[in-house]
Structure formats: structure tokens, C-alpha cells
Design a protein that fits this description.
Layout lengths: L2 H11 L17 E3 L15 E3 L11 E7 L2 E6 H7 L1 E6 L2 E8 L4 E6 L1 E2 L2 E2 L2 E8 L2 E6 L5 E3 L4 E4 L9 E2 L2 E4 H7 L4 E3 L40 E6 L4 E5 L7 E7 L2 E8 L4 E6 L7 E2 L7 E2 L5 E2 L5 E3 L12 E5 H7 L4 E2 L2
Parallel strand pairs: 4-16, 18-27
Antiparallel strand pairs: 1-10, 2-16, 3-4, 3-15, 5-6, 6-7, 7-14, 8-9, 10-11, 12-13, 17-18, 17-26, 19-20, 20-21, 22-23, 23-24, 24-25
Length: 337
């Protein structure tokens, strides 16, 4: 039975709030059962991969989330993440959980090492502000994907360590990282990965399944934006601002940043600026930007040629997702105009 049927049944039957007496960092009366039991949406704990250039099931405009570490690159398609929400994986010594919430459109990769032990994360079946609440299988503590911390359990108040990700189209990923690998449909579960489980949810701005507080209507609810997060202030950059490939130089809090984006190629990424001047879109192969000194920058923020060749720009603390969710988690968030 498709996931959206289970979800709708859950809404019709109960839409129960969390009523236990556990201590939460978030309002417990705003923690909702999502219509499925714990692990009712199964994580993929043993993902399989194939060479990118051998893939045949993805369309060019399909979205993927990419992770690059130690020279290795892996892609995780939305069409799998929509059904499983968490993939527990590892590249060399980096063990991570790639968490993806289809209801908020947010993907975050975080460290699976907790107190010196490697664990896995699963889908708890609970939601806060319509957003995924994973749990770790070491302590059974609950975590907020978009708050980036533990909100209930033995590890409460622990801040999770996150890793950089790149979300873009399969076409862009394949062209940029042809030697990467991509997750296969051999997940160990029977799902129709050609079908999107939530009907018109991605494009219907009026369709939000669970209560969200506060509600912010400054932008359409499902507009995809990148939220750059700092201790001083937070700011969103809409992918609509990149109707033509563009580079935005800006300051958030006290951090100078570069925001690279393309509506056509469906990505928006932010990196800390290290003094690059007049950064603009590049026509060079495998690059997205260049500066006046001839530094060529790729989508991963690596300077691949020029005086600073080999320098890696640091990705900002940021989350890409639907505007309604980011505005709820980060009230009074600024909008780049």
C-alpha cells in the first residue's frame, strides 16, 4: 500500500498528538503521529550502488542528493528518499545518516557516531511542524531534523554534527561527477519508485498535512528556498531568484557568503567567502563560478584551478526546503530580495 494512503488513513483515524509524559525540547502538544508506526517507513540500512554512467532508471530532471568525501561521490535519488526518508551509509571513516523529509522537502546528512559508538537512525513516525523526527537505535532518543538536535530522550539537547550535501538534478550531477556512484532500486523493500507517494503535494501550496506554527505567508508555502543559518540571524534565498544562473555575494550575521544558484539546474548552495572578488557564473567545464583572479570554483565549492587551486570553500550551515517549514522553525527569518 502506498505511503500516502497510510498517511491519509492516519489523518482520518486519529491525527493524535503525543500525550506521553516524556520531557521534550519542543512543545509536546505539537508533536503529531504521522499515520505510521515507528519504522513503518523503513530506513535503508544497506544501500546498494552502481556507477553513475550505468544508471538507467533516473530521468535527467530527477532530483538527487549528493555527498562527497575523500574524493568519493555518491548520489541518493529523491524517488528513493521519498519512500524511505533515511539512508544509513558510510564513506571510508565517515558514517552518516542521510535524512530526507518529503513533507518539508528538507535533506540533512548527519554523523551516526554518538558517544563513540556508530548507530543507525530510523523513522519514528512522529512529526513536528510537519517535519521528520528520526530516532537513534542506540538510545532510542528522538531528534528534530530541522532543529538539528535531540529533542527527547537520553541525549536530549545534544546538537548533531552535519555534513555537506549537494542537491541538484540528475543531469547536473551526472555531468559534474560522472565517476560517482548512485543508489540502486535494490533497497530490500518492495516500493513503486516510479511513483511519487504524495500526489500533488510538491506543487500544491495549500496542501499541508499537519499543523505548522507559526504560519508565514511572505512567500508561497512550497517555494524551494535555501536557509542560511547563523547565531545572529537567518536568511533564505529562493531558487526563483536564480532564473538565470547567478552568484549572490551577501553577508548573513557577520559571515560573508557566496550563494550559487540555478533554477534550470535546480540547485542553490551557499559557501563562506574567503576574499574572492567579483565572483560570477563561469563558462568553464565542470565549474559554476570564477572570480577576477582566475579562480574557478565547482559545485562542491572546490577551487579547481587558478591561484587558489585546491582550496575548499566551507559550506554554510544551511537547509534547503519548502519555505513554510523553514519559516516555522526559524521565525522572523530574513528573505533575500
Amino acid at each position: 500500500m502506498r505511503l500516502y494512503i497510510l498517511l491519509l488513513l492516519g489523518l482520518l483515524i486519529s491525527c493524535n498528538k503525543d500525550t506521553n509524559n516524556q520531557v521534550w525540547l519542543i512543545p509536546s502538544d505539537q508533536v503529531f503521529d504521522g499515520g505510521v508506526a515507528k519504522d513503518g517507513i523503513p530506513s535503508v540500512d544497506n544501500p546498494n550502488f552502481e556507477p553513475t554512467l550505468q544508471n538507467t532508471y533516473l530521468n535527467l530532471n530527477d532530483l538527487v542528493i549528493g555527498i562527497i568525501y575523500n574524493g568519493q561521490a555518491k548520489a541518493y535519488p529523491h524517488r528513493i528518499l521519498d519512500w524511505h526518508e533515511i539512508v544509513n551509509d558510510q564513506i571510508d571513516d565517515r558514517a552518516f545518516a542521510l535524512t530526507y523529509c518529503p513533507l518539508t522537502g528538507t535533506g540533512v546528512a548527519w554523523n551516526r557516531e554518538l558517544d563513540g559508538d556508530i548507530t543507525t537512525f530510523g523513522v519514528s513516525g512522529k512529526l513536528y511542524n510537519s517535519n521528520l523526527i528520526p530516532y537513534d537505535r542506540k538510545t532510542d532518543s528522538y531528534w528534530s531534523q530541522m532543529r538539528l538536535d535531540c529533542v527527547q530522550g537520553d541525549l536530549i539537547e545534544t546538537v548533531i554534527e552535519t555534513f555537506p550535501i549537494i542537491e541538484t538534478t540528475w543531469e547536473t550531477w551526472k555531468a559534474t561527477y560522472p565517476n560517482s556512484s548512485v543508489m540502486t532500486l535494490d533497497t530490500g523493500f518492495s516500493r513503486d519508485y516510479n511513483a511519487y507517494p504524495y500526489d500533488d503535494y510538491r506543487t500544491n501550496h495549500n496542501r499541508i498535512f499537519f499543523p505548522v506554527e507559526p504560519v508565514d505567508s511572505r512567500l508561497p508555502s512550497k517555494e524551494r528556498v535555501l536557509a542560511v543559518l547563523t547565531d545572529i540571524e537567518n536568511k533564505v534565498y529562493s531558487i526563483e531568484a536564480f532564473s538565470e544562473d547567478n552568484v549572490i555575494s551577501d553577508v548573513v550575521g557577520d559571515t560573508e557568503i557566496l550563494v550559487f544558484g540555478s533554477k534550470e539546474r535546480n540547485f542553490v548552495l551557499a559557501y563562506e567567502n574567503i576574499g574572492l572578488q567579483n565572483v560570477r557564473i563561469s563558462e568553464a567545464n565542470l565549474a559554476i563560478a570564477e572570480d577576477d583572479n582566475g579562480n574557478i570554483i565547482n559545485i562542491n565549492g572546490e577551487i579547481i584551478s587558478g591561484p587558489l587551486a585546491g582550496t575548499q570553500l566551507r559550506q554554510t550551515k544551511s537547509i534547503l526546503g519548502y519555505y513554510f517549514s523553514l519559516a516555522a522553525f526559524y521565525p522572523d527569518i530574513l528573505i533575500y530580495e
